[in-house]
Design goal:
Elements lengths: L2 E4 L5 E3 L10 E2 L6 E5 L7 E4 L13 H15 L4 E10 L2 E9 L2 E8 L5 H13 L3 E7 L13 H9 L4 E6 L2 E14 L2 E4 L5 E4 L2 E18 L4 E6 L2 E2 L4 E2 L2 E6 L13
Parallel strand pairs: 8-9, 9-10
Antiparallel strand pairs: 1-2, 1-3, 3-4, 4-5, 6-7, 7-8, 10-11, 11-14, 12-13, 15-18, 16-17
The structure holds zinc ion.
Length: 263
């Protein structure tokens, strides 16, 4: 986690700006002692002394922390953005970064470890109940630009929820949108002879891969200027259920035809 409280004053501090002299620190959620971890090769953060007791102990990677921190710092510089908060508790959720962007309450969730689609759906529902528009982001990986890409189930969930798009964070406020197209596998044509000497042929067609998709790179968007709020109706597909949701979606989304909505 990137925030904690000073034990003496109860004041919330961000690891990025804190120094060990401000300690001792406690977890904002469970109140247990946490230690400030700093180093040149990592993003400053807090870690529980006894990690077993707290529900917020996740195996957060350094990449995840860097992404949260960069978005947090970059949003603070924008004139149309207010109340930028890191790790804000909202019911059972704790938004990685929350803010009011052009007056719209927004929660930005950086999804790097794998959550189940049920958990994402539940958290999305919770945000909607609180009137908050949510944007699930993923960290960009070069794998996306390979010939074929293997999205995880929750990535497919995000794709279906956001009208056929997944947003991948690259740096600062920049996110790249991707659309998943079916990946076609070609089955080569083959000729062989059966036992009774009959000439047989097969193959020579393409079929959709169940596992792979072709990830098509779309536009790069700015989190502070290119997104807007959108209400989404409940939707159920083959393996995916999207609850009625409040989503933060790029403003170009209307150009996506309806048949692309499905994962
Ligand atoms: Zn804790």
């Amino acid at each position: 986690m990137l925030c904690a409280k000073r034990k003496l004053t109860g004041e919330t501090v961000t690891a990025y700006f804190a120094s060990k002299a401000h300690g001792p620190f406690v977890c904002s959620d469970c109140g247990d002692e946490v230690i400030l971890k700093t180093g040149r090769r990592m993003v400053n953060h807090f870690a529980h002394v006894n990690p077993l007791a707290c529900r917020y102990v996740e195996n957060e990677s350094d990449g995840h922390r860097r992404c949260k921190m960069e978005i947090f710092l970059a949003l603070q510089k924008e004139l149309n953005v207010r109340n930028v908060v890191l790790e804000r508790p909202l019911g059972t959720n704790r938004a990685d970064v929350s803010a009011e962007i052009n007056g719209v309450p927004v929660a930005i969730e950086v999804q790097i470890s794998s959550l189940s689609p049920e958990t994402i759906a539940y958290r999305t529902m919770e945000y909607a109940r609180k009137g908050i528009f949510v944007l699930w982001l993923l960290q960009w990986t070069p794998k996306l630009d390979a010939k074929r890409y293997t999205p995880r189930l929750w990535e497919k969930w995000v794709h279906a929820a956001y009208f056929g798009r997944v947003y991948y964070w690259t740096e600062g406020l920049s996110v790249v949108s991707y659309h998943f197209d079916p990946h076609l596998k070609s089955v080569p044509q083959k000729t062989w002879y059966s036992r009774d000497g009959k000439k047989m042929t097969g193959g020579g067609f393409t079929r959709r891969s169940k596992l792979h998709r072709t990830a098509i790179r779309g536009r790069t968007f700015n989190l502070a200027t290119d997104f807007g709020p959108r209400n989404r109706d409940w939707w159920e597909g083959k393996d995916i259920t999207i609850p009625a949701a409040k989503l933060y979606v790029d403003r170009q989304r209307n150009s996506v035809p309806a048949e692309f909505y499905e994962a």
